[in-house]
Amino acid sequence: MNLLEELEGVLSPGGLLTGPDVTGRAAGVWRSDPLCALAIARPKSTAEVSEVLKLCSKHKVSVVSQGGLTGLVRGADASPEQLILSLERMRSIESIDPMQRTATVEAGVTLQTVQESAEEHDLFFPLDLGGRGTATVGGNAATNAGGNRVIRYGMMRDMVLGLEAVLADGTVVSSMNHLIKNNAGYDLKQLFLGTEGTLGVITRLVLRLREAPSSENIALVGFKSFESVPKMLKHADRELGGALSAYEVLWNNFYALVTEAPAKNRRPLSSEYPYYALIEAQGSNQELDKQRFEIALEKALEEGLIVDAVIAQSSTERQNLWAIRDDVEQTFRDGPPVIFDVSLPVSAMESYTAGVTSSLEAQLEGCVCWIFGHLGDGNLHIIVQTPDGKAQQHRETIEQAVYQPLESIGGSVSAEHGIGFEKKPYLHLSRSTTEIRLMQTLKAAMDPLAILNPGKVIDPIRSPSL
Questions:
Q1: Containing H/E element for 77?
Q2: What are the strands, taking DSSP E only, across 114-176?
Q3: Dihedral of alpha carbons 253, 258, 263, 265, sign
Q4: Can you tell me the distance from the alpha carbon of 85 to that of 312, in angstroms, rounded to the nearest whole number?
Q5: Is the CA virtual torsion 114, 115, 121, 123 positive or negative?
Q6: What whole-number distance in Å separates Cα of residue 195 and Cα of residue 189?
Q7: 3-state secondary structure at position 143
Q8: Residues 247, 280: Cα–Cα separation, whole Å
Q9: 118, β-bridge pairs
């Protein structure tokens, strides 16, 4: 009996897709190429995931786990001989505990569903990103997603209390901890958070929820120089007394791109300023919090930290300001650009971005670098396009210009998108040889046949007998 026949025997009806049911799906967000795989296994439970991995281990067939396919580093790409393991049929919210403030969910549930389910109990799941309607929490955990509110709530790993995962040989590791403080031995969940499905497949999670904020204030401000940008960050954090939840900075050309036709966003501030910041604060009393928010901005204007500001006066206006920040698809007008998310010290950002821009302009005449991102937590997004709309043909040149300078300033080639295939050649710029060797040792111990998401993040150390 071959693998596909055996898989049919362990999966619930409709659990195995082949042929056009595979190639009829897109390989990822903003991509037109089809999925490529031997088949797609769609288990309905952790037990079925375990059976699938046992069979793949037996047949030595590689497995690529997939969530919502919103990743941008080709971390879920598969090849014709590999099996895709999709958790799209594992989308249950098993329970929400309002007293313990936890949600127990299956890994295939979307981020937006978790957010909305928490809201029904006057609770709040703080992770948020543009692909919320498609991205799954299992994928968020496997890539340690960040998003818009890391400055206050941390990355995805800070929101996962426990999880259940299946190892390459089918062994189920259930560590469904519901406690905020649990210091009993190794924190095994960390082996699966941010490791992109290379050490195991996450199937269930216990998520930490927060009390829902009852106030939210958002403003867009303009700066006359970059020097004021980090100063305003410190000012806002101090004056808002811990309520600062987002600090998103937009370089001038990105702001102009997303606020002029054919973009549909209205321009709330003049386009004359070199930098802008979207500032969000969440609290518990709208009237008092709004007053404190306005006072903080007034002080910033008086001190010359900002030169202009607009404060959202309604939920619609708040959504409109966020829509400006999230309208990244405008960068695709002339074809697929090359997209980066990097992390670096705030003090180095001005010189770094100026150096990257000048380097690329010198090598690729007329190219454009749009820059924006979660500056409050040191994360910038850089999107590069060339005049002919064929930036992908110049990928290596562009990658060298963006990644190479990070090594000397202690930056990271990946702030929140993971490593996947695309960033693996540059991992050494952010991780030492010793660190990478330890990653390889963990991989060899937990996946000796190297069947889990092979080729991603690191190259495995193979035993001579395999």
A1: none
A2: 123-124, 160-166, 172-175
A3: negative
A4: 43
A5: positive
A6: 11
A7: coil
A8: 7
A9: none
Alpha-carbon gap, residue 370 to 255, rounded angstroms: 9
d(CA 170, CA 124): 34
The conformation of residue 452, written as its DSSP 8-state character, comes to B
How far is the CA of 316 from the CAs of 8, 92, 249, 271, 297, in angstroms? 49, 31, 21, 22, 21
Q: Which of 123, 121, 141, 41 is nearest to 86 (CA)?
A: 41
User: Is 389:355 a contact under the CB 8 Å cutoff?
Assistant: no
- SS3 category, 136: strand
The residue whose two tokens read 């001579």 is 464
Neighbour tally for 333: CB within 10 Å? 12
Please state, in angstroms and rounded to a whole number, the distance separating the CA atoms of residues 279 and 436: 37
Please give the structure tokens belonging to residue 456.
Answer: 């991603």
DSSP 197-257: TSS-EEEEEEEEPEEPPSEEEEEEEEESSTTHHHHHHHHHHHHTTT-EEEEEEEEHHHHHH
List of residues 6+ apart from 191 with CB closer than 8 A: 165, 199, 200, 442, 446
Over its C-alpha atoms, the chain yields an Rg (Å, rounded) of 23
Q: Which two tokens mark 37? A: 């795989």
Per-residue model confidence (pLDDT) at position 130: 84
pLDDT in tens, 302-354: 999 999 999 999 999 999 999 999 999 999 999 999 999 999 999 999 999 99
pTM for the whole thing?
0.93
Is 394 within 8 Å of 386 (Cβ atoms)? yes
Cα separation of 126 and 151, whole Å? 11
**Cβ neighbours of residue 302 under 8 Å, at least 6 residues apart?**
none
Decide if pLDDT at 1 tops 80: no
Give per-residue pLDDT as tens, 274-303. Answer: 999 999 999 999 999 999 999 999 999 999
DSSP class of residue 83 equals E
> How far is it, in rounded angstroms, from Cα 409 to Cα 123?
39
Residue type present at position 258: V
